[in-house]
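Consider the tokenized backbone below.
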């Protein structure tokens, strides 16, 4: 039971968000991750920090009843956490329903009026016209009428209003995202953001002092492993509700194979890796190509280096590289430089280089005595694409299983992080990858070529 402000658990991320001075702050993530509680506390903090004379605030939600439940009635509501200094005034009182916050400026006490406003109808926007509000808290902003969103954003620009918005993941085509995709995460928490969400935000030019915060299940103060497990069991995996309320990603992700499964925990600090536990390294090489000039420019030759831990418990993408060359000879020079130090470090544990089987000429050149690859003492193989075990569907299923069970990891090297970002873009249909002749397809195939030699071993270890 939380009875007072002191009973709350303030995580480092909570404190950083509360201290964020950005004009626009967008909190997004799964259900039950305390975004509304945090936003309410930040509202009160902003009121206390506001200049003398700034007394107009808005607290907006689906309805006055919903706002009452979330900000007045429940145990973590601001009227209970800040009992005495923050009070609820009913709608029958002069001035309308609001929350009052008393702020002292020396010996003078000023009351900040936080008006409670519903936003569901087309007429809702009229309720926030007039005056110069200092701040608006837009709770569950994904449910707001599009006209209300437009009017709120207009106030941000016209009178410099501060905006705090919360949301579960929802349809990426919502009016809300046309504006708030201009927000960006702070560097410290950039890797917390689902890759599919980051891709959507990157389609919009960022705005200065517009900040994005993602709060996942792991970010909930006081969470337990049992609670997280229950949350994952609430909705069918892959459904809109699972994506929105459990993963916190924007729900219309049909076709995305891996992006919605990726978490910050899949990134490991290279310095903390136990290299002695690595029993094997494999390198996959995909040769990008495409029909049109545009797709040829988007496709690249990709090197992916993957390590395997004892008993094939985990696969770790150590590094990746985009070749900048076209000729076979120069491509192999790049491959040699990419792998040389790794071969020296791991010796006989570095097993093979698996080159796209469609590129027979490159394979034979790499095997030649004059090839720089011959200096590495590593065998060159033709990639495994279609066998009794390795099929288009099984390649997808393997990566899905590894990612879901936290068994496919990526180091924090720039190349490995780029491989992770590209993998998040891969789309599929009927359990197979859609080949769009794009860069992410090349990264995906390069990773496959490094994994498929050990597919049976990886699947055996669950």
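A designed sequence for it:
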């Amino acid at each position: 039971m939380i009875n007072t402000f002191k009973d709350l658990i303030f995580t480092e991320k909570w404190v950083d968000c509360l201290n964020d001075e950005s004009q626009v702050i967008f909190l997004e993530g799964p259900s039950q991750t305390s975004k509304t509680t945090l936003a309410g506390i930040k509202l009160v903090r902003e009121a206390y920090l506001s200049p003398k004379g700034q007394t107009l605030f808005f607290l907006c939600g689906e309805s006055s009843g919903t706002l009452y439940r979330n900000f007045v009635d429940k145990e973590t509501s601001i009227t209970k956490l800040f009992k005495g200094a923050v009070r609820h005034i009913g709608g029958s009182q002069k001035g309308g329903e609001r929350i009052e916050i008393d702020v002292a400026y020396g010996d003078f006490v000023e009351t900040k009026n936080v008006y409670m406003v519903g936003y569901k109808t087309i007429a809702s926007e009229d309720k926030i016209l007039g005056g110069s509000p200092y701040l608006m808290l837009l709770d569950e902003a994904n449910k707001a009428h599009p006209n209300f969103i437009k009017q709120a954003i207009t106030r941000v620009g016209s009178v410099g209003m501060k905006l705090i918005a919360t949301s579960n993941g929802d349809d990426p085509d919502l009016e809300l995202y046309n504006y708030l995709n201009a927000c960006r995460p702070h560097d410290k928490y950039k890797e917390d953001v689902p890759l599919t969400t980051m891709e959507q935000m990157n389609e919009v030019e960022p705005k200065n002092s517009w900040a994005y915060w993602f709060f996942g299940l792991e970010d909930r103060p006081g969470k337990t492993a049992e609670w997280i497990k229950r949350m994952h069991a609430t909705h069918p995996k892959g459904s809109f509700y699972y994506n929105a309320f459990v993963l916190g990603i924007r729900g219309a992700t049909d076709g995305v194979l891996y992006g919605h499964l990726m978490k910050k925990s899949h990134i490991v600090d290279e310095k903390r890796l136990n290299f002695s536990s690595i029993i094997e390294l494999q390198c996959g090489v995909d040769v990008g190509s495409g029909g049109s000039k545009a797709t040829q420019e988007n496709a690249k030759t990709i090197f992916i280096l993957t390590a395997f831990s004892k008993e094939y418990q985990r696969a770790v993408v150590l590094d990746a590289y985009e070749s900048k060359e076209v000729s076979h000879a120069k491509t192999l020079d790049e491959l040699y430089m990419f792998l040389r130090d790794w071969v020296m470090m791991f010796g006989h544990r570095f097993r093979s280089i698996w080159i796209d089987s469609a590129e027979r000429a490159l394979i034979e050149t790499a095997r030649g005595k004059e090839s720089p690859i011959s200096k590495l003492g590593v065998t060159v193989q033709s990639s495994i694409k279609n066998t009794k075990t390795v099929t288009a569907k099984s390649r997808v299923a393997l990566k899905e299983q590894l990612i879901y069970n936290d068994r496919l990891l990526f180091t924090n090297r720039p190349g490995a992080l780029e491989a992770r970002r590209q993998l998040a873009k891969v789309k599929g249909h009927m359990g197979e990858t859609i080949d769009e002749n794009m860069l992410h397809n090349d990264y995906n195939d390069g990773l496959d070529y490094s994994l498929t030699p050990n597919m049976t071993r990886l699947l055996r270890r669950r």
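The chain has two domains: 5-254, 264-460.
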